[in-house]
User: Fold these one by one.
Assistant:
Number 1:
Amino acid sequence: MITIQNLSKKYGTKEVLTNINIKFDKGRVYGIVGENGAGKTTLFRCIADLEDYEGEISSNSNPIKNRLGLLLTEPFFFQKITGKEYIQLLCNARNIKITDIDDRNIFDLPLSQYASTYSTGMKKKLALTAILLQSNEYFILDEPFNGVDIQSNIIITEIIHKLKELNKTVIISSHIFSTLSDNCDEIHLLSNGSIVKSVQKTDFQALETEMKQMTIGNKIEELRIT
Amino acid sequence: MGDILKLKMKEYFELQYKMTNRRFKDTGFEPLLAYIILTVGFVGLSIYLFYKTEFAEYIFMLSALTLIGKLSETRRTEFLKICFNDTKLKKIRVTENFICSMPFLIFLLYKQLFLSAFLLFVLSIILALLNFRTTLNFTIWTPFSKRPFEFTTGFRNTFYMFFAAYTLTAIAVSVNNFNLGVFAMLLVFATTLSYYSKPENEYYVWTYNINAKEFLFSKIKTAMLYSAFLALPIAIVLVILYPQNIAILSLFFVVAWAFLICIIVSKYAAYPDEMNITQGILLALCILFPPLLVVLIPYLFKKSENRLSSLLK
């Protein structure tokens, strides 16, 4: 379980997160939605301890980062490191002995090729594979479906279900609402650095309608397309 | 049209000048002072090098070509290709290489090493015009796959340096020149030092579940082990052929390891920023007076620990 209490984050004088209070339980999948710049990535970076912050973030296994698999929106890869070596590097970092990387390559990635030559979707799948093999307790997946083909989307959805089954805590952000409603137990709406709404599975439909209303309003009519 | 092209070239170099000055300012030096320090440092080191070793000419050329080679980095060249047409790109690259090789050329001319100066000049132009394709379709084999990343990526970028070092060793043996053999061994170490010159993305530090001290020890252990793997073949050959020189060879080996450790702790002492000029000066002082390493390594180790403690708990 991860508990966030009174979390605030400022960059200079600009407040990016304001008094966030959320609890992420074991065996549940959480969605974080919000427009660009709402503070999703900053929230993730605070949980991962990549940023200084005010407030408190605690978990059953402190520090959280040692049991956290973090999938970045745009994973960074060294030049001239193969997919297999990338996985090896991340497993070494967590002291995980792994000898059967090829057998566990469920996305059929060309692991002997340089990771930097992969497409956006392949890079995402490689980064996801690596954090899954790290045997983490918590997962933060920032835009996991972004740039990924339809077949892999199905696999990722199944992986998330499996993680839930294994009693892991999963936090996902996505700009595609359907991917969240299919996977999450609870969705938090982040706006201007604050959690403005938290919705359980039964109310996802209402949240989507409300978000559509808020976002679109009568903007399309204003276009006066003929 | 010609004016526009000229203006753009001028703007490009003005921008490079501004960026260089910004880097100096970021490291806490006034640009003018930094240029003076660099000039004095370069001249001082060059004089020392030529005073100290008979291979200074080759080391000097190699240093110049390594510096110039950095300007041919694939992504940098690709960016320039996007910004400029072919003719302008060639002009820019030739000018850049010429500017970078200028201090070396002047010193070689001062030393009346006209052939080397001419060779360096020609090579710097050839390097500017050659279009290296480093994104080849095949993966270069490396013996360091099990513990990425520094030696894994570094070896792939510089494998030819090891061929050169082993070839030099063979030459050293054939002409019965122990010093050349030592130079070849030091070339291996110097190459591995470059693997630690740039800070990696924070994700690759953050992801470790060990504390800062353990992290640094693990990096040092890997560096020592893998550098030994590359340098030992040369050392063994030299020990077999020149057993009377085992003490001096061991000393070189240990000092080279100390430099490797020093560069690792220097890198993390500035992390996530790049190493600053002060650290560069301290390292240069260590080249002049290696016993300084005994003080500098523990100091930088402590500093690295502090720097990394926010990412590694």
Note: Chain B has a mean pLDDT of 88.
Number 2:
Amino acid sequence: MRRLAFLCATLVVAACSSEGRPILIGVSGPFSQPRGVSMRHAAQLAAEEINAAGGIGGRRLQLVFADDSGSEDRAVRIAKAFSDSAAMVAVVGHLSSNTTLAAGRVYSASADPLVMISPSASSPDLTGFSPYVFRVTPSDLNQGQQIARFARRSLEGGSDGGGVRRAGVIFINNEYGRGLRQAFAAEFTGLGGAILEEDPYLPDTPSLEPYLSRMRQRGGVEVLVLACERPGAELALRELRQLGLHWPVIGGDALTGIEGPLAEGVRFSSTYLPQQPGERNGRFVAAYARAFKGERPDHRGAGAYDILRLLAQAISVVGPDRDAIRDYIAQVGTTKPAFEGVTGTIAFDANGDVPTKPVVIGVIRNGQLQAEAAR
Amino acid sequence: MNGGRLATLRWRILLGFGGVLAGLVVAAIIGTAALRAMRTAVARELQALQAASLVGSGLVSTVFDEIRAAEQYLNRPADEARRDFQLAADEGSRYEKGLEQLEGLSLEDRLTVNRIKGLQASIQVDYSIAHALKDLGRDREALGRSLAVRDEARELTRLVRDLSVRQAQRAGQAGSRLEALAVRRQSFLWIVLALTIAAGVLISWFTLQAVELPLGRLVTAAERFGAGDLRPVTTGRMPREFQVLADAMRVMGERLRGIVGEVICESDRIAGSAGDLSAVSEQLAASSAEVSTAMVEISGGAEQQRNELNAMGAGLDRLRKAAGEMAEATGRVALLGQEIRTVADRHRGDVLAAGSALLNVREVVQTTSTQVQQLAEQSAAIDDFVELIKRISSQTNLLALNAAIEAARAGEHGKGFAVVAEEVRQLADESAKAAADVAATTAVIRTQVEDVTATMAAGQAKVRGVESVAEGAARGLAEIVAAIEQVEQAAARVTVAAQQNREVAQQLGERAQQVGGRAVSHASSAEQVTAATEQQGASTEEMAAAASALLQGAEKLRSLVKEFRV
């Protein structure tokens, strides 16, 4: 909170010295964690590009970054502070499903509701959650389905040759993990697969070894589904190696950014790959690499970049008014043209979702995320 | 148009009682609306409370189901216990969602909800790992894991209870807000009622004034007319019904005044003529005395006699003329009497018409009082409504009691729910009390309506009084007609006397002619003259008697007319 206050104070000072009052947009995610880095960088890049091109309607775009550390409590407090600040016109965030759900209720219930667009919150609970909450990533219902289909149809190592049959699921016990697990389980069993067990964990769970040992004791699984966030997935991979197990591993887009030797061969659903074709994406990836020492953006960064571009477009049309921006965003893809971004085409349905966005399965090969060709 | 309508009693009463009725209707509408608003607000608060307590108790019981199934599995691993555990965990997440969707959560509440979610997730994870360890045969580790759950479960129960208590407190605040609203509405209702009553009293007062004052003035005027005081009366402004009557009386007074004035004038003239006549007859008597005493000089003074006769002839001419004028005057008196009678008859008709207008007024008052009576009957509907609210609240009370019993049965874990049940019970009591207040208010309204009805009955009685006064006025007019008849009779008598007088004067004239003739032709025949003079003396006496009768008649007429003050 103190950091937030400090940020706001610096912004006010900056605003007074620059031309006219700036337009404030809040950006909130777990910036103190590795998964939040790309989102922060891409947002900065977008703001710099927009301001270099003359700002929005001649006014500077100023971002207010607030670190929610993935905590629902902090997200709720940040949402309260953003909503209560009259100068704030929109919010980019939050990054994960649990924080988006917790904060989304506060933004929507505010006396002057604030529109928020999440780059990567994928819980099915967010579908139709609130007229003020949008996201540019497909729901886990979609991602879980894609993971299940890939595992059942395309993954090698199944006893019947046409994909795997026995799956074990480890899920983080929050909205994201439960949503992805349920979507996967429904599709996988529907396709004739069997689920050996579904085991919950939390970020403070010291070890997943008992789950893995029990799976081994019961005869092992043909695929281990990690409906986890990155640290949990890394813990599972580490313990898997320690137990000498080599089950194929597949997860959701929360695994994005996973790296190191353990990550080799890990598959996960993704709505964005840095190397995906498209002139816009090429320019974005190049600019990103120039600005941040050769780094590559992930789907959260690309999403945040698109959201800021979309918000800038909305504000330049309807002005910096919370309700007007919300109404504009809600029409994108229906009565207003869809937005062509680096992640692809963004067109919102009535539930604030982007159902037309494709989900691909990526795989880490030689430390690089690549698209896995579906068979 | 409006001003014209307002000037009549009928419209004043219609508008006045219409206003009172409208006030009462407004009061009834406000009362009903307030009740309805309170009912919906109470229902909303109850619903929110119910939702909060349902979710809270559901969540706590699910967590305990989860713990029971989990412990059961740890004691004796069985698929059934494992399934129960899984089901309870999933059920728990559903309740969490319900908890998050509760309305009106503060920031503090949201943080509590987050903590509850975290604890529940943690309990599930701890047991899941404990189960895995148990399945792997690592019982000691499993026991260590499961022990960690106890504190988490205790903390979770406490948090859910806190949340419920806070919701209940908010419901209590909403209750007091509602109460304040009810008090405000009630005072507004009182003000409207007070205004309506004040308006009713004012209207009654003004109506009575509008009837009594002009009526009093008219009665005074009629009494004055009856007493013969025909001077103009000023009645001032009054309702149109009375204005008609007053105008009629004014016109009648003017006509009577004119007639009586003329009669007085005529009678004065008659008296004057009679006086002249008697003076002439006295002169005549004196002349005839002179004639008798001068009989001796007659033969010598024929010239003088002729002169005397000539003078007498002129006197007789004057007498005849005076008698003619008097007969004409009395004829006019008779004619004017006829006219007075016609006028009085016509005004008696007007008075009767005014009486029937008053009958209309009485009908209007009667209709209005019937309508007020109907309003009183309709207020019974409010009573039914209040009864319904009372029934609902007593039922709610019962439900709250049942809930409290269930909570008591649950022991320690039911404590939070017991608090909620108590709050629900109190809310039900409050609404029952509010309903009782409304019932009392309705009763007051009904007494007021009864008062208004009584006032209107009094108004009806007044109107009846007005009718009897109008009848009195008609009677007074009849008496005037009778008085006029007497005047006519007196005038007739005067006419007869005047006729006689004229005849006598005629005779006298003829005889004087004869005497004159004889005096010129037979100056010497003194005996004849003496005899004629004697005859003339007797005639003069007769004439004097007639003149005195005429004077008497004129005096009587004057004294009769004197009773009128013009």
Note: The radius of gyration of chain A is 21 Å.
